Model the fold of this input.
Amino acid sequence: MKRQYGISLNLEMKGVYMAENNQTVENKQKLHVNMLGSVSLTYNGNTINSQMIRSKKFWLILEYLIAFRNRDISQIELIDLIYPEGKSENPANALKTLIHRIRSGLDHLNYMDSHDMIVYTRGTYAWNTKMDCVIDVEEFDKLCKRGNATVECDDEKLDYYLKAIELYNGDLLHKSAFEPWAVQLNVYYRTLYKNIVHKAINILKQKNEHNKIIDLCERALTIDSFDENLYYNLILGLVNIKDSKRALTEYRKMTTLFYREFGVTPSKETMKLYKEVIKTSKEVETDLNVIKEHLKEEPPEKGPFFCEYEVFKDIYRTEVRAASRTGESVYLCLLTLSSKSSEVPAAKLLHNYMDKLRGSICETFRRGDIFAQYSVSQFILLLPLTTYENGEKAVKRLLKQFNKHYPYCPYSVIYSLQAIEIPSI
Done:
């Protein structure tokens, strides 16, 4: 039985798919077609899905017929679908054989004569739309439209949105999502899903339903893990229920993901929220010894201190202020992994060597140095109490060690080193 994510949903609307244990007698007598997420057909406890029938062409044709159920589809169109490069000696016969296999597979449902489920008329095939059939994507579309059409009552809008969200178990025809014919449909339903999720969140905010917002964001992030607005509302919800520790964990998960995949930092709005979390993450404490214990590095690590870029900026500004008072020198160093060839390397390979470069930095530089990841292919270091010559020596030691350990690395490590500018007061 699927997880409810803490959202209490009433799924008794006629025609809406419900878990088998909660189905009404009326609903059991309907054929249920699931297209959102993994594809399956169910009737009265009998199910066929891609785990039972593994033929890709079986599902390609069946999915296509159901997706375009409101029109007749020619044999030529279906042949082009399964043989896009024309590699078949007798494509018409191959299609007939495949349709026979699909009908045999549908027979396992014991719903009705499978020849009546897929109708053949004058050289065309079609999904029989006169069947008593519930298709999840149709129900999802109806619920979204009803929610959007409801003007006055937020509770009613929210009820429709949450029912639609519960139906959306993944992108349309997940395994065929990148087929040319499926792309536009997939984009339409995913966009519709994201829109109603954000509308539901906005209503829940007005109602101060923070736990429901958290559950809704967690569910939506399993479908779209790159939506920063979902992360923002998840973190905000955690802040509102006083779970600062988990809010920080989610923020760090997001920044790591965005760095690795896109080489970008979160928006200013999300960073501002992060700083508020930091400020409110500690309770009132009057015992300085307790605070000192909290401040300790556990366990103490060798090498430079690694931190997030937002923290790095604050440390940098502190060092600039200190240097303006003491006159001591501080240097910035930027390390960049640059491809040796003109080919764009795979992201996974780049991430792998960034991890190796980070390890070399930790082995080479001092405990008093600070560094952070600046972009998907760069680290930035803050080197206090040094000279240009000493900083350059440290960087060259790093390059020597890195090249020795990874002689076949497809990247060159390029560096630049500059003294920080001390502002006049």
